[in-house]
Design a protein that fits this description.
This protein has about 350 residues and is mostly helical. The chain is built from 15 helices and no strands.
């Protein structure tokens, strides 16, 4: 085989993989924009991973001809998406909820990560990485946090998919139950307190938007800001977790992977807070962030091993359920007693 032929084959492999991931991502965005789905506030991230799983048999059949681009999308594009996600957060937003919002967010993130790991590993006998992925998704920001942690830990794709699947279910459940419980008078909180409650306890950004908007504009605004503080705490978690897992492999130490993209994410947040850019440019960056994350989720879905998913999914579901219950209860107590 000539050098030119090898180059052509390599180009075709990358092209095939990108086309596959791109088409799955486009379909996910299209479905998410449909009126019925839009009302449910289903994130394209979730639809992307579901479409990816459905298309995974196709990927398995043509794995050698498109594997490189699919792996690139799941790893590298993910990091670019997380970095650009910083355009959704500003330091002024964080300051607007004061010290209360920051402290309560830290308490929730640290507690859920810790208790989730203990319950998952010690009591449910879950794989350590799956336990921390489920806990991270519950504690911080759902699928985006799981993707970032999965990238930092260099864990197998099926582990991230298991975690995403379980966390998504309870995020959606909370998005519908919270406004219903509030409307029925079961939650003795004012609109501001309810905003804190939603922002501290729901998983996905889309869940927060849906639940907060169903109550009031004030609730939605406060919920989004508190949620963004939890998102920003992802940086600290990404720096701590790899150290924690560095010596966790059997038979020796695992190589420590420092998630440099976390520093870039923080840099974007600071730059976005200090430098005023045209709204059009910020909108483009936000769109690119969302689309790259959808491509990463779609690529992860394509790599899913359904046998392993079914094998570990049950215990992961139980862990996500327990954490959802803890978030709902502890979050309410924190807001009721510490938010005026």
């Amino acid at each position: 085989m000539t050098i030119q032929s090898l180059k052509n084959n390599l180009i075709n492999e990358w092209l095939n993989g990108f086309v596959l991931v791109f088409l799955v991502s486009l379909a996910s965005y299209y479905i998410a924009l449909l009126p019925f789905i839009s009302k449910l506030h289903l994130s394209p991230l979730i639809i992307g991973v579901l479409f990816g799983i459905l298309a995974s048999p196709l990927f398995r059949q043509a794995e050698k001809s498109c594997e490189k681009a699919v792996i690139f999308s799941a790893k590298k594009l993910l990091r670019v998406g997380i970095i650009l996600y910083g355009f959704n957060v500003t330091l002024a937003n964080i300051a607007s909820v004061g010290l209360n919002g920051i402290i309560l967010s830290i308490v929730v993130v640290v507690f859920i990560l810790g208790i989730g790991y203990i319950i998952g590993v010690k009591f449910l006998k879950l794989d350590k990485e799956i336990a921390i992925l489920v806990s991270g998704g519950s504690a911080i920001c759902g699928a985006a946090a799981i993707l970032a942690l999965e990238s930092s830990l260099k864990s197998k794709p099926y582990k991230g998919i298991i975690a995403v699947g379980t966390v998504v279910i309870f995020g959606l459940l909370g998005m519908f139950l919270y406004p219903l419980a509030y409307a029925l008078g079961f939650v003795p909180l004012n609109h501001t307190q309810e905003g804190y409650y939603i922002g501290l306890t729901l998983h996905e950004l889309a869940n927060v938007v849906g639940a907060g908007g169903a109550i009031s504009e004030e609730t939605q605004e406060v919920a989004l800001i508190v949620k963004m503080i939890r998102v920003l705490l992802l940086v600290a978690v990404l720096l701590v977790i790899p150290y924690f897992f560095a010596g966790s492999e059997v038979g020796g130490k695992r190589k420590l992977h420092i998630p440099w993209f976390a520093f870039w994410f923080l840099g974007v947040v600071i730059a976005h807070s200090l430098v005023s850019l045209p709204l059009e440019i910020i909108s483009v960056f936000k769109f690119l962030s969302g689309f790259f994350l959808v491509m990463a989720m779609s690529a992860l879905g394509l790599q899913v091993d359904l046998k392993k998913f079914l094998e570990f999914g049950g215990k992961a579901f139980v862990l996500a359920l327990i954490l959802f219950g803890i978030l709902t209860f502890i979050g309410f107590l924190l807001v009721y007693y510490f938010v005026p």
